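Quick question, first post here. What does this chain look like in 3D?
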Amino acid sequence: MQRLNYLRESPSQTAGPYVHIGCTPNFTGLDMYGGDLGVCMKTGPVQGTEITIKGTVFDGMGTPLRDAMIEIWQPDAAGLFPSLNETRGTPDPNFTGWGRSPGDMETGEFIFETVKPGAVPFPDGRMQAPHITAWIVARGINIGLHTRIYFEDEAEANATDPILTRIEHQNRIPTLLAKKQDDGTYRFDIHLQGSRETIFFDI
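> Answer (accepted):
Ran it through. Tokens below.
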């Protein structure tokens, strides 16, 4: 009989500390691929309202993470995804719907130049409020964290959103809302722990 106990369990691996080198090498100073994937979501004139989203990932002590990386997925301004499976219409050909941003090495701030997403239907047909799906990885995070970016200025749509209305602790919904700033940009900070912990989704 072959003994099956001679192999030891491998130690778990975190998403870091080399997230930037592996996913955004040009950001770290390595000239590769002609540019980092996901940096530019607009490949030409886009439809809808162009917006900028800025934010920082904070740990439980309120310290900015300087090695976090954020990826986002979203529909275009008409609520259509750039996918071969999209059957509701023709998506904006100049919009990729996917972006990747490393946190600034000094401040930890991430930035996305994108468009305000349109509403998309929930599986049961109800319309969801405009939102962006976000994925967060960093040193010390074993499994990437998923959350959503909704918009504070979409109050009417947010009030009937199938996901937001299911959240048990309604007082935590503000952790999912991007807030419009005086300069026209949207601010969406992510808190990994603590009293302001962002809502994360198990998907």
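The first helix runs from residue 19 to 23.
The CA atoms of residues 105 and 128 lie 35 Å apart.
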